[in-house]
Amino acid sequence: MTAAASQHFVEVAAALALQIRAAADDIERMRRLPLPLVEALARAGLFRLWIPRAFGGEETDPMTLVRVVEEIARVDGAAGWCVAIGGEYGVFGGYLQPDAAREIYGSDPLVVTGGAFRPTGQAVVVDGGYRVTGRWPLGSGCQHSAWIVGGCRVLDGDRLRLGPDGIPVMRLMFFPAASCEILDTWHSIGLRGTGSHDYTATDLFVPAARSLSFREPPAAPGPLYALPTIALFGTVLAAVPLGIARHAIDILTELAGTKITTRTQQVLREDATMRGDLGRAEALLRSGRAFLYEALEEAWRVVSAGQTISVTQRALVWLASTHAANAAKQATELMFSAGGATSAYISSGLERCLRDVHAAGQHLTLASTNYEMAGQAFLGSDMRTTPLLVRDNRSAG
Question: Does the global pTM surpass 0.70?
């Protein structure tokens, strides 16, 4: 994708700011995105950036979606998270067999896919596919998605199927949203509008073609589908706290021109401590963001040249995502503190930024254990003892 085409989608995302901002209170109150907003995001093509061109998608470079999510999250963290999930799940169109991918991603240009890929379900092998039963938590966007995914362990009868390495075989199952039950469980500290409820399915038949494994090679050609899937997802999710932190800096900068401090009776912008906090927040955000794009762009250069990224390069992508999220969290905390008592009011916007950035940082792909995993890779240790990194490496399985 050309730089101009990539910039086009970022500008499209920015143009939706007024509509997202107008819906912000409803997003928080309803604990989901209003359907008119979902439709606007879909019509703008933001959920189709990683879908293969063969099925009507854009098949952009990964940096484009990360930039788009940043832009949306700068207005509203929950909206950014939903675009992140819906956008990155488009990549599955490159892993499914063509007929199934076309059924899911090619039938409706406004289709959105949501759900969770943790293997908390069971898929019993039957003729032509699987019988799926399970309950999955954290199904972000499940209420506005046409298709739902659910990670499952595969069973032959009542016995778990094991891979050559002795690890239970896991597959991701795709089923229509109407065939599962959504449970009202998402009562959260932050990102309330993501609608990340639990959902269940019982004895649901899923054709074999509507399932995939991260250890299998992609069905579609192209460098986007050669990147390690779960690490790639982490870069998109890290864009959410980056956008939230930028929002917090925007709020504090505007507040600094109007608030009179109790201690000095001067406008906040004259306070040296606040100026120092603003400088530190800007440094944290810019450095975390730069590392994220550097690691992602390097991985993209490697796969675009037809090569396989190394274990160290994969670890760098994980590390950059985690560092970006933590830097954004620190920057947001600085802005909340700098706002003084004003920050505690819902009307300030800073308390929501603080809640949302902490909620976003709790995701598994952004966990602090990624620091140790990266250190292990830099020391040349045997990475076969690192489940996430190995599972995200198709050459390992």
Answer: yes
